Each structure stands twice: as C-alpha cells, then as structure tokens.
Amino acid sequence: MTETVEKTATGAILYDRQVISEISKERFEAAGWLHSEPVSGELRSSGRGSTLYVGNVPRQFVLRHYMRGGMIGKLVRESYLWTGADSSRPFAEWRMLAKMADRGLRVPRPAAARYCRSGIFYSADIITVRIPNVVALSQYIAARPLPAEFWESLGAAVRGFHQNGVFHADMNAYNLQIDKEGDLWMLDFDRGKLLPPGPWQQKTLSRLHRSLQKIVALNPKLHFRRGNWEQFLEGYFNASRSA
Q1: Using CB atoms within 10 A as the burial measure, which of 73, 148, 165, 199 is most buried?
Q2: Are residues 70 and 16 in the same domain?
C-alpha cells in the first residue's frame, strides 16, 4: 500500500491512489457522493459519531466522522487537541489499518483520511473500503444459538490479532463483525496501536466480555451464555498454545 498526502487550506488529506483514485474535501461529506446512507445500529450500537455508507456497488466505502465519547463528549463533540499530523487520529488509524491489511488481517482497507485544523484544535474523518456481507457480532448471535465451534473459532481469531500485536481500544460486540462464512473482521481502530505482548491483551478480552454481558442484559433473548464465553476462551488459549 502506498500513501499520498495532499495539503488543504486547513489541513491535509492522506490517501491511497490504488484504492481511491481521486480525492477532494467533498468526498468527506455525504453530498460529495451520488449515493450515501447512514449506518444504522441496534442495542445502542449507533456509536459516537456520524458514519455513512457511500459510493455504489461493486465498491462502496464507509465514511466516518470522528466524534468524542464519554463525559468529555458531552462538552466537546468533535474537536481534538492538535499535536502534529502523524499523531492525529485519522492519520494514525489509516496507517495502522494499512499495516494490518498488508499482513492479511481481516480489517477494512483504508482509502483516505483528513484533518481540518482550527487554531490548536482539529476535526477529522476517515474513509475505508466497505466489507461486504458482514454483521456485528451483537446481531449475529441474535438469530440462533451458535455451536461451540463458532465460539472457539472466534476466540482463535481474536488470538490471531493479539499475536500480531493488535491492540483495539474498544473491542466490543459491535466492532467485531462476522461475514457469511462465519469469519471475524475487526472495525474501528481509533486509538488502536500495534504493541508487544502485555496486560492489554487481557484488558481487551475483559472489555469484550463486558460488552456481551451488557447486550444480553438489554435483550435476554440473545444467544450468549456463560458456557459460550468459556468456549471462546478455550479457542483463544488453544490458539495461543499451538502458535
């Protein structure tokens, strides 16, 4: 993957010409595409910001505007403190996605990212290639009970990301997506990093477990029980031992 950086009046755009041949500031707005539609979510999965599907089949993209979450998000919705282009959220996420995609990991391929500065603050957006035929894990477990093999393969797949040093800052049942073959994809690597092995691995597993428990509390009919988590961990640690 190759990257090109173009300066704009208020910031810069980073993109891969092989993925998106032409880029402009209009591409970071819904009006800049012939087709756009909001990404919907269930069980409070709508996320922190504005996310759209843009473009047309056969290649569609996902356009995401960076929005703050948590307590600070109630005060400052879309502004971040400027500390340099390379450390900006969109450029950092774009480059992390590029490295993971080049390794063959199941993540969205980055297309373009931009920041717009205003004094000591900036706002940001990122465009990635849409992964076809995937649904959130939260939705996938709603249809029917899943066999032990699924949960074990899910655990093994997460272990594969960890073995590649992939730290996901918010690994939950929405950012884990399942394709029609039952394989795992990971989305949304804002604040993600590539790290050596460490306590962060257990922390991300705990984050995922809490997320699954939370959505079952919202909808007890979802097919996730304690035994499923044990199956997940069995797959995770079996993959670790065989690596």
Answers
A1: 165
A2: yes
CB count in 10 Å sphere of residue 188: 24
For the domain that residue 152 is a member of, what is the CATH number?
1.10.510.10
Q: How far is CA 220 from CA 43, 127, 176, in A?
A: 12, 35, 20
Cβ-count burial of 23 within 10 angstroms (0-12 exposed, 13-18 middle, 19+ buried)?
A: buried
Rounded CA gap, 160 and 121, in Å? 36
Domain that holds residue 176: 134-242
> How is residue 65 written in tokens?
């505007």
Chain centre to alpha carbon of residue 215: 18
pLDDT in tens, 82-134: 999 999 999 999 999 999 999 999 999 999 999 999 999 999 999 999 999 99
Q: Each residue of 38-61: pLDDT tens digit? A: 887 654 444 444 899 999 877 899
> Which residues contact residue 125 at a Cβ distance below 8 angstroms, ignoring those fewer than 6 apart?
28, 63, 64, 65, 66, 90, 113, 114
Overall domain count for the chain: 2
Last residue of a domain, one of 102, 129, 156: 129
Q: Is 188 a catalytic residue?
A: no
Kindly name the residue from 16, 170, 188, 190 that is annotated as catalytic. Answer: 170
Q: Are residues 64 and 155 located together in one domain of the fold? A: no
Instruction: Give the C-alpha separation, 207 to 117, whole Å.
Output: 33
**Contact criterion met (CB below 8 Å) for 34 and 44:** no
